[in-house]
């Protein structure tokens, strides 16, 4: 889920210096309009790891805008006044009135996440607390509030580096305490809990926006620009009607980096190495499916990728390895009449495998947030809610013993063109290329945005995406088989 | 919460026989239109106690309509096919396509409620399961489904009578097993769990409809008429846009009975008895507030009632009894400018008392679902979501040690008129009567509907409503003080 916030996003100083004056002016103007219209309050949550620049961000917003109309709230220990009332009382006190902005550092997420991290509550209790939070935010949205939730993320390496750097400098050494290193040791479990929290509370109306916290300039610009864009959107539009879905906030792309472009597509495998590895992993996979413990699990494999990325070839290398009786391939095309008369996930539910079986989906339920989004086959409200519905769906599979693997096969635009042309000129491949393929190709940029959003919102700790560099087919196929064997082995 | 379903609702045989032919014809026509339009599926849940006529209702709907286009699903033990897949798989299989009706007897609510009743899961886990259910239903609604959720209710007495009656007849004796009596012993805990389930899943779009299950004719007519009305509403309107709020289903009033009209307003107290009891309970209340354990709790008292029902007088009898320093009265009038700039519950949150204190609300947050609903000060979507928000609010107070008592003071229309006139003719009471009071009086019927809905949806096991027969002020005041003392004593 945090993959996109580990790409080394950064903004050059010169670019930053050039952008900030205009941004500040625009923010001030928007704040003035907000204050004048008094139509809705703005609630900004800044959450994430210690040391991920949360207070820096809050201070910057105060600096850039008129601080008289911004309230900033930390999450210190509750006062005795607060202790004697329901947990949420302190936050109700701190809510901004219409026309004002409040920034919450930590906010109502701090308590459930830290209690879980400390082991004082279990997952069921955590979910209960998160559900309370979700209802609270839903109420705020129904009352007209604009809520922006920023999650500041540092990779484990980046956090370690940051702590080391502070420690090595005599001037900042005092800032690193034993407690910080203790928290660092809990990094993995903290991330797992945070991911659960984000997944449960990233709703269509108030999704989390992840921000990589390595470069402060990048961090500040992302927050400032997102805030400006959302303010303008809401100020320009009439108040949303009760119960209607707002346009969901999304972060702008500042530096052109994204998770797809960060893949190294030049990775290759020799034919000889490929053949050796193929045999090895196919054999391993076959043995795993005959393992006694395999009977208690089912395997759901999802293959997605642009046209001609090599899904079919990769799938064949898997099916070759196992008994056809325990494996079923579901090629996903346009839904049938019967399927169109049901909720969109229905046709995938009906094809879930029994225990001890493998179901392969050649394209899948992700069509909703890819082709249906890009082509406008469903409304924005529909695909926005789909992320949560898909996460629910996969969680139910995993909770009932399923192993879910999702592969995104990635190739460059140039390689796609090469493969398209090859298909057109090869008599036995010509059926594989249609007008649609050429049309989709023209929408490469739109698809890229949709794919990145999909990876951000649905790569979860229980059903992560595996990105497969498929420029070289050999390399891609082996990566898929190796990942498959690893994940099944872990689970058995 | 189940008060309205314990009033002895019934329909005379002659009235029933007269109504049914037209209802059947109309239902058949609506079903035909549904099947022809194929715009949305209809999902009917029938839940509640064993023996509360669930299968009877399902059979009746099949008899009244064309059973070829109705699927009826019981909740038997899952098959081996179903056991090997996620819990919800069986229900996904059973979903009706657009244009069709499915009836679920028990449905996805059976498992969480029975697991909790058997003590195999705790409340946190129950809430987690209910939250999954809520998300599932939300998805169905977003996909366009019409969901009707009927809860068949029998009071404890009524269930006992039913079992005894079956047992006493040699022809039906075999139907009553030991298991039935064992379930009967769990009646109270089952009701408590059911209430929690209903509270968590009674959403604005798919609220529960409670049906008293004593008289089968009443039961069948309620279900049939509600279904017909909802079908007609949805068939007549264009498909709701994604994310928009549907008109919430509500049951029609068939026999003119409701919880307000069922009160015996003729109950009286002698002045002498009144004075003796007043002294007794005021003294008791005073002692309770000085109890050591009282310091760990706060008390929130809500007074609602039609104009001139005697709220002020009742409140004075309470404040007389205790130290003014620990008690605060909040007279609730139109919100201030500052309050209008916040969510509607904000002005009540800010007045929550600390521990060891008593807060009295003379009118309250229930204004949202009473005056604001009736006068159209907020949209239907707004007051529909308010029930859930209010339940959340009160649950948070109770969970943090609060004791919430809510009094509805009830008088007849004639008595109100008498008091209005008295006020107009008494120089020191004239300030208490305004044009508004006379206007409200004209909307008695609308208010009655709103009050009954409020009692149904917000009288919870943790914060129940007390209905106070206030035709005789003495009687009303003593009932309030006695209830107050009892509830505090229970909690300390």
Structure description:
- The structure is a homodimer of 492-residue chains.
- The first copy, chain A, is an alpha/beta fold and 492 residues long.
- Helices cover 50% and strands 12% of the residues of chain A.
- Chain A contains 20 helices and ten strands.
- Chain A has a five-stranded parallel β-sheet, sandwiched between helices. Chain A has a five-stranded parallel β-sheet with strand order 7-8-6-9-10, sandwiched between helices.
- In chain A, helix 1 packs parallel to helix 10, helix 5 packs across helix 9 and helix 11 packs parallel to helix 20.
- About 1% of the residues of chain A have low confidence.
- At the A-B interface, helix 4, helix 6 and helix 16 of A face helix 4, helix 6 and helix 16 of B.
* Count of DSSP strands of chain A: 10
**Strand-and-helix sequence of chain A, N→C?**
HEHEHHEHHEHHHEHHEHEHHEHHEHHHEH
Spatial order of the strands in the main sheet of chain A?
Answer: 2-3-1-4-5
Radius of gyration of chain A: 24 Å
Shape of chain A: globular
C-alpha termini separation of chain A: 24 Å
Helix-residue proportion of chain A: 40-55%
| Beta-strand proportion of chain A | 5-15%
Multimeric status of the protein: homodimer
Residue runs with pLDDT of under 50 for 5 or more positions of chain A: 242-247
Structural class of chain A: alpha/beta
Helix count of chain A, per DSSP?
20
Largest interface: A-B, 60 and 60 residues
Q: Could you tell me the mean pLDDT of chain A?
A: 89
Largest sheet of chain A, in brief, is: 5 strands, parallel
